[in-house]
């Protein structure tokens, strides 16, 4: 109980704060909270609050949403929620003996709330409020009737209530239509229809409501329901001859006929025809006449009867434009004989009109669509001669003429009938000589140049292109035809210049005839065609430039990748034959740029859904293998080799991680890391060296991850990868002075797979500048000697070399390094060497001599220092 009381007080406080404060982001939250809470609150839970207080709260809330200018902040749904809450509060204060004023208020609030919910699409909530409004209206009607049913002012009030009831019922029907409840909607409207006897002034209103329902359901393809509503709309409109204009009734009937036709043209054709005839009687309208012909064409009407019907249209004084539309309709339904004959009659009927040319042009268009080319050419000659001898085409028809001619030329061009295409373009050119106002002559010249090129008439093609360039030099298509002519003439320099011009035009905004997107698409297409044309004519240098631009400007990854593959096939054989030089280095940089473009587009390709996964993987494999092959060929250019190995690795990331790919990735990363280490050793500055070493370390870590996965796929005990990774990482860490170097080596000392050579390498790297770790070198050399002795067949030479390195480390410059190793331990190493020499044959004499000299120098040093060792 306390919780309910708290909620009610909180609800009341929320309303008061909402009304008292300005609109803010918290306003919407407050409205949503009130809307959710109102469902849990009833009159019993608000027992401590008087009816007058609840009514005041509801009215204030209602007025707040109406009077405040909050349309830009609170949407219609939020407004409906506020009205919903206010209306629910008013309902809590309903009494059987409520005053007429209170009932009027309830009707208003319920109706507006229901309408608000309909407008935002919540018909379920709307119906509840409409039903409450109807109940209140019936209660109000009863109260008024109980007074004095004969008094005139009471009759007026009753009429007003009935009018309001009709409106609420229509709103309820609107909600039902929106919710798909046809039965409920029809019941409401039929009840309204019955009320029209007492409310003749509402005929137009209800007629319009039914028409709107018919239009809505027609758009939703609910033809049966639409026919019902439109029939009701017409019936209601006819009940009072003065309320609805004949034009509106005809409009209803036309839509009704269309609905029947779309519902089932074969079954309801006759019904639709009767309805459209009735519509035309109500008001003669071109739309109705057109629809009648359309309905007639749905049936099996004979040509003679059809012709009689269309002739009626001519007699009714319709415009020529409308008659021409009827001709098009007849042609679309393959009634050519009727259409052409009617067209002939139209021309005769309107011969004194300036619009006769429009009929002639339509005649030409229809003839061409039906492949009556010879007859069409005769008509075109008549048009041109008339235009040149005092019967000019209207300015708005000139474009229509050229459009017809160019479409026919394009049709001929598509079937490779270039002579015929030129014939039609020449018609357009002749017309241009008479009227220079509306023809894009440059485009016409380009189209003619294309035909001449296909016919091998290169001089004429060149002349047409020159004329096009004079009129429209900044057009990308003009530049493309300049390019084609240059290729045909073998002028690669001018062809390249055309490619540069095309690129310039593509990247500037000075050509305003197309939007940016269309312009880019057209330009990319032209680069593609240019590359193809150059290759077909043996101009590889020009083709390379066109392909580069295609890869640069195309936004389609498959197209870019195809262009890059062509570039590789064109460039790589030539580059492979070039001697090492700066020019070759520049060419390799271009190839690297191609690969980086390919990498970007492979990423986009895999993100898209156009290609199958298998096709995408095949593309990645092609670029991966090509990069690998290039890396292998770059023996004399380690920097390029490194980049190609890294690119091959990156391309392989798009491929499934099977054993083959893992091995390839591991090898790429090892080779790239090795090259970085090599470059680090040659670096001239510490900064440059650190850059190479850090880059190598990153590759080593990636390689180690791959190696760990690869080891799980098979036996790789003979693979030196593990050893190489340890040595590479040790070198990087040592030269970067890594404080965790000893920690890194702890597991290395215990590895059973490392051999003596690896430990010797660690020792050498530990002392290679800028590294200086003699204690690590000492330990590594001892490990190496230990493993040499453990072998069944000892490599004496290798052992002697390792001992030589150890002695040099312990006794640099003839002076024992006692800081690194105690004198007794140094003595012990010499004794081990002596024992090994005495027990083993083949110890190199030079190494023995070296040991003798070193021991002699130690003796001299100790003697001078008065040191004695026992």
Strand content: under 5%
- Spatial gap, N to C terminus: 103 Å
Total number of helices:
39
Count the strands? 0
Helix content: over 70%
GO biological process, one term: male meiosis chromosome segregation
Keywords: Meiosis, TPR repeat
TPR repeats: 442-475
Protein name: Protein ZIP4 homolog
Walkthrough of the structure:
The chain has 39 helices and no strands. It is flat and about 150 Å long. Helices cover 77% and strands 0% of the residues. The protein is an all-alpha fold and 870 residues long. The longest helix is centred in the N-terminal third of the chain and has 27 residues.
Notable features of this structure?
870 residues, mainly alpha, 39 helices, disordered N terminus
Fold blueprint:
Elements: H1 2-20, H2 25-38, H3 51-67, H4 76-91, H5 100-119, H6 123-147, H7 152-178, H8 182-195, H9 203-219, H10 223-238, H11 246-263, H12 269-282, H13 286-298, H14 303-315, H15 320-332, H16 336-349, H17 356-369, H18 373-388, H19 395-414, H20 418-434, H21 441-455, H22 458-471, H23 476-489, H24 492-507, H25 516-536, H26 540-553, H27 557-576, H28 582-607, H29 613-633, H30 638-652, H31 659-682, H32 686-710, H33 721-735, H34 741-749, H35 756-766, H36 774-790, H37 796-810, H38 823-839, H39 845-864
Helix pairs in contact: 1-2, 1-3, 2-4, 3-4, 4-5, 5-6, 5-7, 6-7, 7-8, 9-10, 9-11, 10-11, 11-12, 11-13, 12-13, 13-14, 13-15, 14-16, 15-16, 15-17, 16-17, 17-18, 17-19, 18-20, 19-20, 20-21, 21-22, 21-23, 22-23, 23-24, 23-25, 24-25, 24-26, 25-26, 26-27, 27-28, 28-29, 28-30, 29-30, 30-31, ...
Protein name: Protein ZIP4 homolog
Keywords: Meiosis, TPR repeat
Organism: Bos mutus grunniens
């Amino acid at each position: 109980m306390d919780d309910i009381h708290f909620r009610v007080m909180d609800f009341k406080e929320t309303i008061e704060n909402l009304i008292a404060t300005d609109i803010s982001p918290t306003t919407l939250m407050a409205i949503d909270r009130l809307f959710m809470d109102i469902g849990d609150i009833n009159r019993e839970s608000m027992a401590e609050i008087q009816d007058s207080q609840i009514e005041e709260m509801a009215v204030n809330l209602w007025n707040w949403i109406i009077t405040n200018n909050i349309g830009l902040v609170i949407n219609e749904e939020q407004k409906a929620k506020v009205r919903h809450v206010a209306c629910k509060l008013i309902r809590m204060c309903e009494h059987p003996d409520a005053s007429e004023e209170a009932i009027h208020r309830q009707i208003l609030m319920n109706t507006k709330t229901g309408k608000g919910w309909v407008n935002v699409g919540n018909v379920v909530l709307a119906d509840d409020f409409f039903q409450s409004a109807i109940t209140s209206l019936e209660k109000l009607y009863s109260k008024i009737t109980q007074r004095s049913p004969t008094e005139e002012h009471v009759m007026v009030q009753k009429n007003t209530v009935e009018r309001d009831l009709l409106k609420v019922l229509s709103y309820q029907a609107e909600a039902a239509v929106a919710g798909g409840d046809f039965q409920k909607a029809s019941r409401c409207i039929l009840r309204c229809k019955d009320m029209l006897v007492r409310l003749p002034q509402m005929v137009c209103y209800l007629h319009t409501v039914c028409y709107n329902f018919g239009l809505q359901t027609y758009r939703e393809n609910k033809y049966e329901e639409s026919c019902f509503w439109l029939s009701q709309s017409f019936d209601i409109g006819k009940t009072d001859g003065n309320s609805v204009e004949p034009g509106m009734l005809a409009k209803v009937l036309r839509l009704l006929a269309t609905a029947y036709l779309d519902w089932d043209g074969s079954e309801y054709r006759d019904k639709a025809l009767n309805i459209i005839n009735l519509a035309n009687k109500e008001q003669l309208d071109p739309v109705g006449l057109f629809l009648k012909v359309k309905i007639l064409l749905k049936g099996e009407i004979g040509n003679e009867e059809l012709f009689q019907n269309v002739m009626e249209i001519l007699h009714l004084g319709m415009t020529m434009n409308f008659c021409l539309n009827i001709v098009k309709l007849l042609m679309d339904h393959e009634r050519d004989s009727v259409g052409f004959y009617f067209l002939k009659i139209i021309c005769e009927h309107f011969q004194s009109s300036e619009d006769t040319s429009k009929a002639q042009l339509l005649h030409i268009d229809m003839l061409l669509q039906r492949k009556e080319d010879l007859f069409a050419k005769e008509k075109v000659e008549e048009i041109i001669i008339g235009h040149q001898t005092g019967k000019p085409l209207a300015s708005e028809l000139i474009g229509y003429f050229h459009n017809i001619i160019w479409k026919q030329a394009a049709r001929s061009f598509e079937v490779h009938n270039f002579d015929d295409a030129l014939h039609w373009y020449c018609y357009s050119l002749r017309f241009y000589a008479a009227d220079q106002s509306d023809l894009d002559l440059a485009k016409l010249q380009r189209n003619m140049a294309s035909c001449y090129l296909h016919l091998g008439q290169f001089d004429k093609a060149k002349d047409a292109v020159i004329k096009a360039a004079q009129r429209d030099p900044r057009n990308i298509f003009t530049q493309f035809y300049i390019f084609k002519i240059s290729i045909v003439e073998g002028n690669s320099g001018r062809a390249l210049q055309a490619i540069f011009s095309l690129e310039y035009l593509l990247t500037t905004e000075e050509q305003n005839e197309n939007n940016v997107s269309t312009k880019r698409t057209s330009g990319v297409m032209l680069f593609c065609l240019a590359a193809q044309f150059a290759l077909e004519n043996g101009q590889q240098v020009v083709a390379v430039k066109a392909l580069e631009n295609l890869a640069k400007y195309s936004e389609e990854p498959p197209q870019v990748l195809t262009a890059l593959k062509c570039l590789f096939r064109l460039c790589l054989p030539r580059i492979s034959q070039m001697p090492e030089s700066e020019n070759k280095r520049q060419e390799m940089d271009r190839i690297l740029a191609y690969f980086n473009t390919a990498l970007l587009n492979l990423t986009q390709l895999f993100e898209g859904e156009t290609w199958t996964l298998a096709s995408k993987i095949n593309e990645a494999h092609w670029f991966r293998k090509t990069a690998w092959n290039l890396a292998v060929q770059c023996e004399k250019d380690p920097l390029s080799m490194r980049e190609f190995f890294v690119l091959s690795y990156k391309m392989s990331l798009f491929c499934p991680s099977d054993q083959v790919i893992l091995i390839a990735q591991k090898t790429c990363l090892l080779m790239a890391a090795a090259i970085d280490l090599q470059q680090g050793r040659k670096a001239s500055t510490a900064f440059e060296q650190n850059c190479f070493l850090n880059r190598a370390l990153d590759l080593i870590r990636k390689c180690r991850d791959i190696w760990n996965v690869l080891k799980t796929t098979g036996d790789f005990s003979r693979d030196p990868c593990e050893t190489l990774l340890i040595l590479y990482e040790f070198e990087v860490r040592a030269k970067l002075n890594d404080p965790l170097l000893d920690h890194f080596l702890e597991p290395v000392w215990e590895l059973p797979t490392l051999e003596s050579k690896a430990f010797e390498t660690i020792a050498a790297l530990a002392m290679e500048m800028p590294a200086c770790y003699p204690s690590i070198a000492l330990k590594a050399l001892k490990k190496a000697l230990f493993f040499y002795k453990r072998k069944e067949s000892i490599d004496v030479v290798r052992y002697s070399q390792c001992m030589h390195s150890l002695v040099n480390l312990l006794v640099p410059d003839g002076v024992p390094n006692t800081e690194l190793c105690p004198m007794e331990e140094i003595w012990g190493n010499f004794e081990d060497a002596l024992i090994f020499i005495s027990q083993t044959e083949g110890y190199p004499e030079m190494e023995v001599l070296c040991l003798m000299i070193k021991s002699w120098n130690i003796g001299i040093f100790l003697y001078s220092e008065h040191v004695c060792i026992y």
